[in-house]
Amino acid sequence: MSTRTGPPLRRLGFFLARRHRAVLALALLGFVVAGVLAAGAVPRLSLARFEAPGSESDRAQAELARRFGTGSPDLVLLVTARRGTVDDPAVEAAGRELTARVAGDPGVAEAASYWTRGRPATLRSGDGRHALVVVRVPGDAGHVRGVVLPRLVPRATAGTDLLEVRAGGGEEVFRETVPLARQDFVRAELVIFPLAFVLLWLYQRRVAAALVPILAGVLAMVIGLALLSGVLAVAEISTFALNLTLAMGLGLGIDYCLFVVQRFREESARGAGRAAAVAGAVEHAGRTVLFSGLTVAASLSVLFVLPFAFLRSFAWAGIAVVIGGLVAALLVLPAVLAAAGGALLPRRARPEREGGFWHALAVRVMRRPLLTGGLAAALLLVLASPFLGLRFGVADDRILPPEASSRQTQEVIRRSFPAEESDAVQLVSRGPVPAAAVAPYAASLSRVPGVAQVDSAAGSFAGGRRTGDGDPARFRGEGTWLSVVPSAAALADDPVRLVAAVRAVPPPFPVLAGGYPAELADYRASIVDRLPLVLALMLAVTFAVLFLMTRSLVLPVKATLLNVLSLGVMSGALVWIFQDGNLSGLLGFTPTGTLDPSIPILMLCVAYGLSMDYEVFLLSRIKEEYDRTGDTARAVAAGLRRGAPLITAAGGILALSFAAYATAEVTFVQMLGVGIAVAVLVDATVIRAVLVPSLMRLAGPLNWWPSSPRPVTGPGSTTAR
């Protein structure tokens, strides 16, 4: 075929082969530029807050700040008396001096303590050894965690002969999470690269053939981070997205490179010249890679419908690394093959055989498709069954390892304080407030199970009774507000249920509920409410991509069902391990009995896209054989023989890239690594090797509906051989 005719991808392959020197020179220059941009992007990543913009809690916080100059504390200082109790005069004087010093910091809007708020019991530990200083630091997450806290915390926690001071609170917990997540990446990559090289060498049996896919993965990672540097100008990107970028970039870069190299080897084995082999690889494998990349990007893009910067950042990261993988596989790799493709070919050419393990497995499966497919499906359903016990909760300091300073601080607060003053539900009025209505409302709120105390302009209340004057001036302004302080037990058990109970108390005047527990409740509700929309869009866009590739309506339905099954296994593993605590000793995390909904939703989109990656590759090989023979059974057996070894190798390497994050110290990173690794392994083995051939055998000619049936060509076309 002429280099000037044929499909566009074939012409692209010939062009890249002819101009390989120029392409490689441009690729090297581009890599350097991308590396500089990527290096600049990493320090600018942040950890977005778990908040729902426009929600009731978000509006409440805005009203508290505007009308009362107050809000939820961002930083908590745990003050411990080295001698005596926090009520000793010398300790009190030192505590007041600390509070004033913190309040004077230019980044602090408000600071109060046990000693400056009239000694409330909620800010004093039961044994009297500890007291709290609560600090509000306004600004976005990047400013608070990147500018104010790094300066403030070391000064505030310096301590004295009388006081030991430790830092905690939500902002400090997540500030400490960022460097740990980055360390997790470095540790994981030190494991991934050598193991990936070994696996690739075992599969390819050539050093160059093992190195080139890794280099393609590195290029995909660097391009992905470089693209994120541009996104950072208009959007906030979570530091956790770095882990996804690097794991997916390496895995997809290797996968796509393997697809192209495998096809280059096949074209070369048929006697094609170097340029023709490159063109054939780009024409056939390139189409598969394009559809695969489009599928992965489409499944991640549905995260944009969620109004949360934390989850949207993963969509940006995933799309960026897909682009990086496509550039590496379809533009740079063909030039490498044209320049040094001989080093990637097998040392001894092996004639293609009709049999082999995967061909024989496909034949056995298709002889008894109901039995084998039914057993495989039953096994996966059993593995997915823990998902039925899923309980959504909220993340806290226990995402960090036990030795983390902020977690140790929070553990002392949970253990020693009767209530969580810093995590109060704040009810702010929305209109005129009858003065006589505040006290009865505060008393009713104090009777809610799990509420330790209610502070208001009418005084403090507990158990329905007024217990003291409190600090009335704190709640006066344009209207009023109330602080509903939960008990430590209620906050640890189910803060979302507590918020629902507080909101259910009929208010005598319109109110908005804010504060940290309400923010978490609104964040969780927003995610769960949008979950059906996310799943529907994910299924719809990937269905459309597969239909464009196969021109069949049945195959996308089959692929969707199988991928949902693999997602069920992944979800079951998350519940069994991270919710219920199985393997917590081995993996080194602390289970809380619930899962934060944001991470499973993220993983559903990532795993679904990656599972479709292998579905696209296998279907492309099967369809190619079907177009040649018109026999579905033979096409499935031949497609599995040619595609399954590569899918298994690629899936193993991709699973390894994510499984390495099981060694992470941050639980979120562990969940991402373990969950995706399980989904990829199940998909690349049981689903592709057993369920795909059994279902396609059962469907027969319906697989290709509504396309016209292909004419049967060749002997023995009615059964797989």
Would you mind describing this structure in some detail?
With 721 residues, this protein is an alpha+beta fold. It folds into three domains: 8-45 and 176-394 and 522-704, no CATH class; 74-168, Multidrug efflux transporter AcrB pore domain like (Alpha-Beta Plaits, 2-Layer Sandwich); 425-514. 63% of the residues lie in helices and 8% in strands. The chain has helices spanning 8-18, 20-41, 56-68, 89-103, 141-156, 170-204, 207-231, 240-269, 274-301, 309-340, 357-367, 369-384, 405-416, 435-446, 488-493, 495-504, 516-550, 554-579, 584-587, 598-629, 632-659, 667-699; strands at 75-81, 110-113, 130-136, 163-168, 425-429, 451-456, 459-462, 465-468, 476-477, 479-486, 511-514. Strands 5, 6, 7, 8, 9, 10 and 11 form a seven-stranded antiparallel β-sheet that branches. A four-stranded antiparallel β-sheet has the order 2-3-1-4, with helices on both faces. Strand 7 (459-462) and strand 8 (465-468) form a beta hairpin. The longest helix has 35 residues, at 170-204. It is elongated.
Portion in strands: 5-15%
Q: What kind of sheet is the major sheet?
A: 7 strands, antiparallel
Principal-axis shape equals: elongated
- Total domain count: 3
Give the tally of β-strands.
Answer: 11
Mean pLDDT figure: 87
Relative helix content? 55-70%
Multimerization status? single chain
Indicate the low-confidence ranges by residue numbers.
Answer: 711-721
Radius of gyration: 30 Å
Q: Total number of helical segments?
A: 22
Distance between the termini: 32 Å
| Classification by helices and strands | alpha+beta
